[in-house]
Amino acid sequence: MTSKLICIECPQGCGMEVWLEGGKVVSVSGNTCPRGDKYARSEMENPVRTFTSSVLAEGLDIKMLPVRTSGPIPKDKLFAAMAEVKKIVVSKPVQAGDAVAENFMGLGVNLTACRPAKPA
Amino acid sequence: MNERELVVVGGGPAGMAAALGAAAAGVKDILLLERDQHLGGILNQCIHPGFGLHRFKAELTGPEYADRFVRETLQNPAIEVSLRSFAVKLTNTLKLSYLRPGALEEVKAKAVILATGCRERTREMIPISGSRPAGIYPAGLAQKMINMEGWIPGREAVIVGSGDIGLIMARRMALEGMKVKAVIEIQPKSRGLARNVAQCLDDYGIPLYLSHKIVRIEGSNRVERVIAAAVDGDFCEKPGTRFEIACDTVLISVGLIPENELLEMSGAEIDRKTNAPVANEVNRTSVPGVFACGNACRVYDLVDWVTRDSEKAGAMAAQHIREGK
Fold it and tell me: What is the CATH number of domain B122-252?
């Protein structure tokens, strides 16, 4: 069987067609670069997304600190990740790239700060 | 009056790239004005990934993309950054006035680069009838509220317009636990990137109504519902297609318009329809020595291209300072 999807790897947004047999990807067409092929295979077999949100900051020069996962996480964990970041309060100064939570939710990625925050 | 070689107005991606571009081209005396208390501009509220693929071959969030330039800007000895500084006047002789806490400053420059970005188009710029309840927000304002202030604007939302900011906000609100009931787009295709329709709407089961419009917003104090309808090829309502969507929040995502009041004050020619400077080359204006870059010059889809073109604006200003043209 075939499945259609739009590549989300870059702003070009290639329309792709994926051939599947027994739930496994046999071939990908319509992509214009190798990232598309990789995305299509992942999306069919183990869909993942980079998670971003903001966490509460206390005593710092911003109210909310933007954070991201250092790598993609399973798509079906996004809402659990939202619940998890609501529990976090950052009160120490950070630089962009500093880990706010290590091995976030046991997923093998860190939750990292996306910008610096200084004392208020 | 203070004298400067170059004054850059706006400390977002365009202003920082312009200042850095001018410094790289040899300008030694640059004043960068930013009205907020941080550099970074609109990128600070764009916490989603997708920035920098061209520039850095990496997928960064908005704040991460900004941070790379903030560091460079603050470390550059040719650039003096003045935060909480709001430019209020510009003349055609390149005299610029700005307010900063406790002072009204005046400065005479050899060149001025306006990197003042855009405002959002508002509900008043598109015809939607009905009452005027609370709960109607420009999409970018809602983005700032949620991502930077930690406020959730409502519980059930409808988004008018399928520009990228609206699509990104549909996903954000869904993740924040709001119910996003519909995105309504008057055009027959989405105005945002295909990837954003896929990853912001399809991923979350949010319906996109193409060739539809909101005909009324109803509610006494707070928004209670919107009335939507299908439109024909001339964007006129098709009779008998009205339906109601209950919601307490409406986001308006119908595009951006350059913020060019300073440029207008300087006497430069401005296109009344787009609010962009009239000139035969990107970054130029009709006033010699006054340049406009980034979203103040034209509305960009990608910040990577804002950086690229704004660096050129810096080089063009440097040439003007050197050669007077």
Answer: 3.50.50.60
Structural domain count, chain A:
2
Residues 6+ away with beta carbon under 8 Å from B6:
B19, B22, B27, B29, B30, B31, B109, B110, B111, B112, B113, B317, B318, B321
- Whether B63 sits inside 8 A of A6 (CB atoms) is no
* A78 vs B62, B175, B301: nearest CB: B175
The alpha-helical segments, DSSP class H, found in B157-229 are: 164-175, 194-196
pTM assigned to the model = 0.95
**Superfamily in which the B2-119+256-323 domain is placed by CATH:** FAD/NAD(P)-binding domain (3.50.50.60)
Nearest chain A Cα distance for residue B203, angstroms? 9
Q: CATH 3.50.50.60 region(s) of chain B?
A: 2-119+256-323, 122-252
Condensed to tens digits (0 to 9), the pLDDT of residues A25-56 reads 999 999 999 999 999 999 998 999 999 999 99
Touching A: B residues 271-290, CB under 8 Å: none
- pLDDT tens-place string over residues B219-250: 999 999 999 999 999 999 999 999 999 999 99
More confident residue, B181 or A3: B181
Asked whether residue A39 falls in the same domain as residue A61, the answer is no
Shortest CA distance to A13 belongs to which of B197, B170, B205, B62? B197
Residue in B49, B150, B177 nearest the CB of A52: B49
pLDDT tens figures, A69-79 = 999 999 999 99
Cβ pair A63:B150 closer than 8 A: yes
What chain B residue is nearest to A67 in terms of C-alpha separation?
Answer: B47
